[in-house]
């Protein structure tokens, strides 16, 4: 699993790791039941503190994307979780982006085209 984090970003490292793993799931780079590196292995690979990776893994486990046990380590869940609050979260996340798009004079059609392009880019997922 190849993750790209930016040490100089305003986004905290644990959020970058979390988001990169979600992108790998959406792109089909990570498959159901696939083993993930241990916390220490990924921390060494990314040259970050193991607690940073642990925090990312814990968040993904809480969301239902990852499962772990002492014998088999951490791996991708067999099925994706269904989040009843997702639409509310999505709306809240999109509101400032829509406001910025309007300030940049983007039309609804242009915004929809961007979203459609992003969906198509991620269409190879096995989920």
Automatic annotation (TrEMBL):
Keywords: DNA-binding, Transcription, Transcription regulation. Residues 11-79 form the HTH gntR-type domain. GO terms for molecular function: DNA binding; DNA-binding transcription factor activity. This is HTH gntR-type domain-containing protein. It comes from the Bacteria. The keyword Ribosomal protein does not apply. It comes from Lactobacillus selangorensis. SUPFAM superfamilies: Winged helix' DNA-binding domain. CDD domains: WHTH_GntR.
């Amino acid at each position: 699993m190849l993750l790209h984090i930016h040490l100089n970003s305003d986004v905290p490292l644990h959020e970058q790791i979390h988001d990169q793993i979600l992108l790998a799931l959406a792109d089909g780079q990570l498959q159901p039941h696939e083993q993930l590196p241990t916390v220490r292995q990924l921390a060494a690979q990314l040259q970050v503190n193991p607690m940073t990776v642990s925090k990312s893994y814990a968040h993904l486990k809480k969301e239902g994307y990852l499962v772990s046990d002492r014998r088999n380590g951490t791996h991708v869940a067999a099925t994706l979780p269904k989040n009843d609050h997702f639409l509310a979260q999505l709306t809240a996340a999109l509101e400032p982006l829509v406001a910025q798009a309007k300030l940049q004079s983007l039309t609804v059609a242009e915004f929809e085209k961007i979203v459609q392009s992003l969906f198509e880019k991620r269409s190879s997922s096995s989920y």
